[in-house]
Specification:
The chain has about 375 residues and is of the alpha/beta class. It has 15 helices and 11 strands.
Length: about 375
């Protein structure tokens, strides 16, 4: 998602200064390939490194000053691409988070900054904090995009959303072209398996059962003759999970980790077949016309497959024989080719829709 945004800004506003907050997710920009003046917000970097939020909370001091200090003055656009933040699934969506959103968006709105929420999944939205978060973005945002119909429905049902600000728009990463990283040519035309700890920490499946499922999928793929590997799509947690899966698997399977986002998509796009538990692993596979199956902990997976004209591609976790049958069907050469042809027809339309989405962003009023 980051590269999708940066590449579009490069196209539309090549001389722009782009700021991102310093956080646990972003602590090193050296791997990001962009010609833009791309940097951390210096105040947010200082606040994060000095643990000021924690100190203020322990001393029972108001946090609003810290939130206001992170606002980038005279910004033309505030663009959020959090993917899946405003949902009852987010256990850490606390009143403190809601207060932070209120403060930030109020300040940006006050200085005339356009506030855009790029396509993402929303809901379910029943809990008080989730509803308050939606109420906040409804009040201050200029444009809010739901990634699929289910999310749009959750916003509509919430009763707190100004639906005049909401548009239905699919995942916007289709325009990003991946780059196959050096040293991984031996994995071309391979079977890429992408684990995701969210499958476990959301309570969808136990870790033991999930690792057993990955092992069973690998065993189903052995006879295909294609190289099989585990790909860490993002983060240390998924990396650790991949190595735990490797221990369970009898043959010595390769774990690919430490790649930047463009290299990850490049490797996925070179695959013969992808089985992904990461949403954007699924997205990268489908918009690269690579056949894909997924495990899911949210409605957003099934809805993404629908956008690409694919159905019954989410694996039933409680039915291993059916999983093995679905995997084997995707391994058949003729089926694989037919899926690729079908996806290629969808991708051109999705790319066109994404270009229209960006025009909507830049022309927002």
């Amino acid at each position: 998602m980051l590269y999708a945004i940066l590449q579009e800004i490069e196209r539309k506003h090549p001389d722009a200064n782009v700021y991102i907050p310093y956080s646990s997710d972003f602590q090193d920009l050296s791997y990001v390939a962009t010609s833009l003046n791309f940097r951390f917000s210096p105040v947010s970097q200082f606040i994060y490194k000095t643990h000021l939020v924690g100190i203020f909370r322990q001393l029972h001091l108001p946090l609003e000053w810290l939130y206001k200090a992170t606002v980038v003055k005279h910004a033309d656009f505030f663009i959020d691409a959090s993917g899946f933040h405003f949902s009852d699934h987010k256990k850490n969506f606390t009143p403190l988070k809601v207060a932070r959103w209120n403060c930030l968006l109020r300040e940006y709105r006050g200085q005339g900054t356009k506030i855009i929420f790029l396509p993402q999944a929303f809901g379910p939205a029943v809990k008080k904090n989730t509803l308050n978060g939606l109420k906040c973005i409804s009040k201050y945002a200029d444009l809010i995009m739901a990634r699929e119909q289910v999310s749009y429905g959750y916003l509509e049902q919430s009763g707190v959303m100004d639906m005049n600000k909401v548009r239905l728009q699919t995942d916007f990463t289709s325009l990003v072209e991946g780059v196959l990283p050096e040293g991984y040519e031996h994995l071309k035309d391979g079977i890429c398996i992408i684990p995701n700890l969210r499958m476990v920490d959301t309570g969808t499946v136990s870790k033991e059962d999930y690792i057993g499922l990955i092992s069973a999928i690998v065993n189903s793929c052995k006879a295909s003759g294609h190289p099989i590997y585990l790909l860490n799509h993002e983060g240390k947690d998924d990396e650790q999970l991949a190595y735990e899966c490797k221990k369970r698997i009898e043959n010595n399977i390769e774990v690919v980790t430490g790649l930047n986002a463009l290299a990850v998509k490049g490797l996925i796009s070179s695959a013969y077949f992808v089985i992904s538990s990461r949403f954007h692993g699924v997205a990268s596979s489908l918009n690269s016309c690579v056949p894909c199956l997924a495990t899911s902990w949210s409605h957003k997976y099934q809805e993404l497959f629908k956008d690409y004209g694919m159905s019954d591609c989410v694996l039933p976790l409680d039915n291993l024989p059916k999983i093995e049958k679905m995997v084997n069907e995707f391994l058949i050469n003729d089926n694989n080719k037919n899926i690729r042809n079908s996806l290629s027809q969808r991708v051109s339309k999705i790319k066109s829709d994404t270009e229209e989405m960006w025009e909507m962003v830049w022309n927002s009023k």
